[in-house]
């Protein structure tokens, strides 16, 4: 819950999702809160940490129903006599078209139509409140998405960080961003942290990563590091099975119904066999709907055969673990209950066939509602259907309290597991950048030490192109998943750097790179957030800090040059990300 204390002349107001009574005898805001002070919206689905802000909420298109509007309520002891204004820090989605919304304050329209906020970045706007709008007693501020089509998690959406009702001269306070300062260890220590005497077995039974549209070469490059970090699990990204080699989502071609091309079979046979030779469990994954010109049709039984043929090929290569993913797509128009039943039937059919040849075959299913605590009414119906109909031996992927949250709690895991009634495999969306031009290099943090008592497996979701530098945060994920009881992010990130650096100069440049790109778990924002560009915009936007902006650019240039010098031929993609940021910043000076 986001809570802010406001000091007034006669009372301290605590703004929360509950009603609050305020004294309006001075210039303090009548109401000030963050997005999570609003009831409704999409925060229960995807968490409340986005774009360097905590306590965020958002509204999606009308078909999402409960997520299409949100309401904040507050009480006043008397009607205000002076004209007031609404200050709101919000953003439009990152699509070219502006999302249409309605903002109502006690049924008085303050805005209807295109929202006018910036795309993909926070902007504060002020709206005058007509006299007579506010009154004594309960007042309500409602924000609704007016778009007729769209799904949860996808544009068109409108996102709110903070808002206040105050006089026209009031300003929202500046947000102080978290930073990362690394103290390099004096010596290399055993890594991951050795197990304590009272826990002789690793925390999570299965510990590993997946790719993010990785190539065969990327998977093969990382297998030795999985072994080194005591990880034992690797899953192909289902995008890796798409027929286009491009990492651009508009060019992917998911032809799941066709046999994999011979060249791709040869490539991934090498990956599978390399895993087998190194004691790594390989999991073969396919998504039969996402980005496909012919999404899987549950009404056509013959399509099961088309889907199964590639699982059959993987099994012929000695694979024992498999995954069917149906995430990030909507279920049929018949609703979540029927959707859950259909998904369960498909997964049951695939694993039943696989077990005819291998009784020990295992399946992990990634469902539509893969995050949260399972209590959202729509999610609950779908997850209950899975609980009732899905083969009880199938694992369920779960991403945590939100899709990519700063905290993952045991409470949410237990609640979700209680609804779906299947074993969980934690799909941790860190340090994933979803192919955005950014790096997330800081240590894993905010994961409960006892999650391993609720989930059997842990799988990190990595950065897309930068698999080499991804080894730094991945090492901390390995450290946590192996020994979560003694995990220390500060100790872990220092040892992760020392593990890749042979000299003091190498250690220092990696340290500075990680501190510059600390990752969204520390700096806030989503998977595509670029803290370097955000910091530059703040420096360049103020006349008092223009010199600092130039110095910051030179600092990034220095990091890039030192990376080249200290690691010739290594971390090429990471260095390119830094160079692209430098080019972007110079163009704005």
Second rung of CATH, namely the architecture of the largest domain? Alpha-Beta Barrel
Largest β-sheet summary: 8 strands, parallel, barrel
Task: Average the pLDDT over all residues and give the rounded result.
Answer: 90
List the strand order in the largest sheet.
14-15-16-17-18-19-20-21
List segments where confidence is low: pLDDT < 50 over at least 5 consecutive residues: 1-26
Distance between the termini: 39 Å
Q: Which word captures the global form?
A: globular
Determine Rg (CA atoms, Å).
25 Å
Beta-strand content bin: 15-25%
Extended strand count: 21
CATH-assigned fold name of the largest domain: TIM Barrel
Q: In terms of structural class, how would the helical and strand content be classed?
A: alpha/beta
Name given to the CATH homologous superfamily of the largest domain: Glycosidases
Please write the CATH class name of the largest domain: Alpha Beta
**Total separate domains:** 3
- What proportion of the residues is helical, as a percent range? 25-40%
Number of helices: 14
Please tell me about this protein's structure.
With 589 residues, this protein is an alpha/beta fold. It folds into three domains: 31-167, Sandwich (Jelly Rolls); 206-500, Glycosidases (TIM Barrel), CATH 3.20.20; 530-587, no CATH class. The protein contains 14 helices and 21 strands. The strands form four sheets. The protein has an eight-stranded parallel barrel, surrounded by four helices. Strands 3, 5, 7, 9, 10 and 12 form a six-stranded mixed beta sheet that branches. Strands 4, 6, 8, 11 and 13 form a five-stranded antiparallel beta sheet that branches. α5 (336-357) links the parallel β17 and β18. α2 (216-228) packs parallel to α3 (262-277) and α10 (504-516) packs across α13. The radius of gyration is 25 Å and the shape is globular. The model is unreliable at 1-26 (pLDDT under 50). Residues 200-485 form the GH84 domain. This is Hyaluronidase. Belongs to the glycosyl hydrolase 84 family. One of its GO terms (biological process) is carbohydrate derivative metabolic process. Keywords: Glycosidase, Hydrolase, Signal.
